[in-house]
């Protein structure tokens, strides 16, 4: 279990596939939510990229985090419909200067579009933040790539890296569930080479034990595949990275494990 890092300097970033809220058992949201609440209170991320959250579920998380936090997001089908790639942020630390969404398709401005053979609509949400502590800006982008189509994942990686290029002087932080293992898929290489990004798990000065980040509510697998990543531009220093295995009485907050990084922009 990861230790609370609230008093350590740096920007605390987390990526977390929430597993959409459902009361159909096993593992209903009503049972998972208290565990999620305690995990988030323990870790106190400044920036939290989420995947699969439904609108009501995200409102629950916002209530549990408290008034110091705000979030940006839109449903994959527009408005509050379907799953979100929402970004939560600590308003005492981060100020959003602008934000937008785009869809992972040949028509990225068309809400709900999917043109690459994926049957599930996929999207990205981004925010340009100002760090209140340092005064420096940075871009945060959060996404969830397709779970079945490799073609769609590769095209999505190309689009995301293209969108990241216009202002390379501004640091970038990318969070997401990429649905492929780090180091073992062309999507990973595309994000790092074409996107001029680094994997904060690899570059961190310290890191915790590696586990497979998708565990399906079963005990975490040591040295398993990392399909949830925190990437950053090369000028960002990663002090520590860890995969958080927090659970209570055998109940996990999600079927994924959150990945955390302590970054210096």
From TrEMBL:
Molecular function as annotated in GO: hydrolase activity
Top-level taxon in the UniProt lineage: Bacteria
Domain Endonuclease/exonuclease/phosphatase: 14-256
One Pfam family here: Exo_endo_phos
Keywords from the named record: Hydrolase
InterPro entries in alphabetical order: Endo/exonu/phosph_ase_sf, Endo/exonuclease/phosphatase
UniProt name for this protein: Metal-dependent hydrolase
Organism of this sequence: Streptomyces cinnamoneus (Streptoverticillium cinnamoneum)
């Amino acid at each position: 279990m990861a230790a609370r890092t609230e008093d350590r300097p740096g920007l605390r970033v987390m990526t977390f596939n929430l597993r959409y809220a459902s009361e159909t058992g096993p593992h209903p949201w009503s049972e998972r939510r208290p565990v999620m609440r305690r995990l988030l209170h323990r870790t106190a991320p400044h920036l939290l990229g989420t995947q699969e959250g439904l609108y009501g579920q995200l409102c629950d998380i916002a209530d549990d985090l408290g008034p110091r936090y705000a979030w940006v997001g839109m449903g994959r089908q527009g408005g509050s419909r379907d799953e979100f790639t929402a970004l939560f942020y600590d308003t005492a630390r981060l100020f959003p200067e602008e934000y937008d969404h785009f869809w992972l398709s040949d028509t990225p401005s068309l809400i709900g579009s999917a043109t690459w053979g994926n049957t599930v609509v996929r999207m990205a949400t981004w925010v340009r933040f100002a760090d209140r502590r340092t005064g420096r800006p940075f871009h945060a982008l959060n996404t969830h790539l397709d779970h079945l189509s490799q073609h769609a994942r590769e095209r999505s990686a190309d689009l995301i890296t293209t969108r990241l290029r216009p202002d390379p002087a501004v640091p970038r932080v990318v969070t997401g569930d990429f649905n492929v293992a780090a180091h073992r898929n062309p999507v990973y290489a595309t994000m790092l080479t074409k996107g001029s990004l680094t994997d904060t798990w690899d570059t961190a000065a310290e890191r915790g034990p590696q586990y497979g980040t998708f565990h399906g509510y079963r005990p975490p697998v040591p040295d398993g595949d990392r399909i949830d990543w925190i990437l950053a531009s090369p000028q960002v220093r990663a002090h520590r990275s860890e995969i958080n295995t927090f659970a209570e009485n055998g109940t996990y907050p999600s079927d994924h494990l959150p990945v955390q990084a302590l970054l210096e922009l």
